[in-house]
Structure formats: C-alpha cells, structure tokens
Amino acid sequence: xxxxxxxxxxxxxxxxxxxxxAIRHIPNGVDLERFAADGDRKATRRRHGxxxxxxxxxxxxxxxxxxxxxxLLKATRKLADRSNMSFAVVVAGAGTDALQxxxxxxxxxxxxxxxxxxxxxxxxxxxxxxxxxxxxxxSAADAFVFPSHIETFGIALVEAMAAGLPVVxxxxxxxxxxxxxxxxxxxxxxxxxxxxxxxxxxxxQDSKYRRSRAADAAMRAGDFSWDRxxxxxxxxxxxxxxxxxxxxxxxx
Length: 252
Fold this sequence. Notes:
- The protein has a single domain (30-224), classed as 3-Layer(aba) Sandwich (Rossmann fold).
- Helix content is 48%, strand content 13%.
- It has helices at residues 7-15, 32-36, 41-48, 69-82, 100-105, 121-125, 132-140, 155-162, 175-178, 193-205, 207-221, 226-250, and strands at residues 2-4, 23-25, 55-60, 87-92, 112-116, 143-146, 167-170, 186-188.
- Helix 3 packs across helix 7 (132-140).
- The relative contact order is 0.16.
C-alpha cells in the first residue's frame, strides 16, 4: 500500500507499475486554526517596510528555477504597466534575495520586497513550522501567488488558503491538485507571465470576486485539516490490518 499526497503523485506511481487499488490518497495537513488567527496586519507591514495602503501579493518558497519566480517578476512588470493601483509583491524564502538584480533589470525593484529565509531555529526545534513571522505575513497579505512549475504537494498554497487568502497558481503538477484545476483558486498556464498578471490584476481590481475566491480557498483548506489527515491514516491502517488478517485466514 502506497500513500499519494496528490493525484499527480498517484499518477506517477501508476506509471511505475503500482496498481491503482494499492494507492491511498492522503494529503499533507496544516494547522487550520493557527493560520486562520488574525495577526497584526499593520505591525507586520511596518516591520517589513510594506506600505499600509498597498495591495499585497505574497509568494512563499525557496529560490529555484522550478518555483517560477522569473515569471512572477515579469508578471509584476506587466501589472505595473497596466494598473495605477498601489501594490507590493512580497517574496519569502531561502535565497530569494538573489532575485534583486533581476528585479532591477525589469524595473520592479520598487514593487518587490525580498525577505529571504523566514523562521527561527527555536521554531524548527519546537516543530512549529512555519514560524510565527511567516504566519504573520499570511495575515498581512491580500492575495497569494504561487507560480511554481511543479510541486510534489505545494504546502504554501494550503497555508495561504487556511489564512483565507485568494490564490493564484499554475496548472503544473501538485499546484493544480490543490486548486482542483481552478475550482478553488485562479489557475494559469505554467511559465505564462501575461496570464499570471491577468489573474493577479483581477483579484486586485475586483473586490467582490476577490472575496468570493477567498471563501473558496478557505473552504478548500478544510480538506487539509490534521483531523481529516489523521482519520484517513487510521482508515488506511485498519484496511491494511484487515487485509493481513484475511490473508492469514486463507493461508493453509
């Protein structure tokens, strides 16, 4: 019996020869209450130099080509060209400070806030991941952007949904599984900065639509509660035990 955390992972198992009925679909989980708690939005923005009146897009993840950050920077340029609204794009994750030169090349450095690694050693030791500083960023944001090309799961997407943020992501493996092909969040083609900018602009401009998508995201987050994940594992263990007992009874 194998556990697949997304349909994309299950599909890879099948390609490797695993029988579909030998696969159990159990996602990763998040602490919904922790992310749903209201943080001090003003204080968090002030701490990171983010204008209080700016529409804040948040993206979380280490700097790696598969994360699609170059697409996000290009989308930021397109969004700046088409909108008069004040907005900021905040990127948190290991190595994201290296995006500064690219942001300057695209003339979007004034819109971009690169925060690098978030979290303390104490938080990791206490298994409180992510740290409070990152949870506070979710509370301070208005929308979440996840331009990744491929993920095994995409936990940051679920964290953002649990925080009640409308999300924009791609149709890459892992990402599309979380938003169910666009049902629970905006989904654009992989490596398409124009489509990414369009989706970001719609969430920024249309408050009614934004609230609707935020409600969708919060509802979807319930599928990733630890209670549900634990129940699914218990059910799986019971199934395995039952199968084992049945085989033992049939053994001469």
